[in-house]
Amino acid sequence: MKNLIAKYFYITPGICPSLATMKAIVECAGGRVLSRQPSFRRLMEHKQNKSLSEIILISCENDLHLCREYFARGIGT
């Protein structure tokens, strides 16, 4: 069963297990991994427009600085 079909993921580089492992897990479950960090605007477009696929952020404590803009605007990881 592919539970992540039609979902996009942005995975920060310091994640554990490794980015390559997380990418394989997400893709095996039917999700897609974004190669570049999405802008706040793009995240909001996908959140508000139900016809667009959801974007999910996966991060870790060491990479929180990469998500600072999202936190400042109320988007969690």
From TrEMBL:
Transmembrane segments: none annotated. Its main location: nucleus. It is found in: Nucleus. It comes from the Eukaryota. Residues 7-75 form the BRCT domain. One of its GO terms (biological process) is positive regulation of transcription initiation by RNA polymerase II. This is PAX-interacting protein 1. It comes from Camelus bactrianus.
